Amino acid sequence: MKTIDLHEADTEFSRLVDEAAGGEPLVIARDGKPVVKVVPLDAPAPFVKRRRGFLKGQISVPDDFDTMGQEEIIAMFEGEDE
């Protein structure tokens, strides 16, 4: 992916937009530091790495999780007092 200085992008904006729309994304930099990325609207979303397992060993799910509070919930729906 090519990087364009902000001043050059300002003077050649129309051409750069055409290139990006044609599938050639680019980065616009200010003082050598990347500021924005120009991509076509139909470009696929960037892959987001998921952090699986980062809470391993720190939490636990009770064995009766799927039935916890079942009696109270049924009583609420049926309008019965506990």
TrEMBL record:
SUPFAM superfamilies: YefM-like. It comes from the Bacteria. It holds the Pfam family PhdYeFM_antitox. Gene3D superfamilies: YefM-like domain (3.40.1620.10). Antitoxin component of a type II toxin-antitoxin (TA) system. Belongs to the phD/YefM antitoxin family. This is Antitoxin.
